[in-house]
Amino acid sequence: MRHALFKLKKLKQCSFCLLASLSLFLIGNTEAHATPPSTQPLFNIYLAEASDEKITQCGSGEYDCDLTPLANEDLDQVLLQLQSSSDDSIKALLANLSGTDYDLLISSTLVKTSSERAYLALEFMTTWRGVPIDFIKIDTQQTEPSKQLKSSLLIGIKEWLVRVSQTDAFESYTLYKALGASDYINELSLPRNIGDFALSKQHLNADPFEGMLSRYIHKDFDLAVLDIYVYPLLEMQIEEQLRMSLSKEQADIKSISIALGEDALEMSEIIRVDALSKQFGVDVFAFEAKLETAFEPLFVSQYAYVKEDKIVRFSANVPMYVTDSLIPQAIGEISVPMVSTFMQQLREPLTAQLN
After folding, report:
1. Dihedrals φ, ψ of 138, to 5°?
2. What residue range is the signal peptide (predicted)?
3. CA 171 → CA 123, 128, 310, 342, distances in Å?
């Protein structure tokens, strides 16, 4: 049974977006988060079976165990109480989890010892797309189990929230490490400056398949932006993957331009940039777009190539005659993480199918 506590609205902004009131062209896929009403759910919490360790313990004969002391109805009531919590830290964490691929699996076992003492053994397993990444045990003493179980579950969930906050369990770098994904923070090397553009900030995406975004801002014109995206190839079919990545960007651009009329958009085909490809010994693909507005034209120039097993994609809101001198410098100074264990394991069955 799926339980969602808070919904986090995602505003996906594509490569051709107006920012400010006039003409900023925001490039690349970024997400803006708004805090929604707490009545709209998304973080998934399930009741699950006890762990093998707990089942073995209960089967030893030393304990009297109830492996299903809580029902879905009990969880429903506890989650309603949690939703109405006045604790801002709880609300903030749950809001941050909304819309993510995390699930929380809770198993409960009522254990009675030979001394007639009882406790509720709660096991919290956090998963990302079904992959376990965190496991926490919390026991609560029970003097009147028939009256205490739901309150003990609420206490347990709140304690779990405190612990995962302390261990940064839901930070992107924690997920990447748990999965064996690439360490972009320590192993991605980028130039501090590309021409007159200076590195302003970096963002490690919550999804390991989307890697890291690095944003450069022009030193004199802060609305001029150059973004560099580095993320893994899903399959080692390089040209197909590069063209697909750029095609998605073009589709976003076309979608945005519709509101301005059929003739507002001029966009080139995706081409192989022979000069760059020859200079660096890799296939570099690119396209350029121009959007006419009532104020002034907006531009986007995008390039993509593969280094190691990563797609490196540049997206700038300036014409291509400007970026043509910047991209060679950037390519020459970029080094990316080596192939990760995570992607190796994912690609093995795909590679076997192709062979």
Report:
1. -140, 125
2. 1-34
3. 21, 12, 22, 17
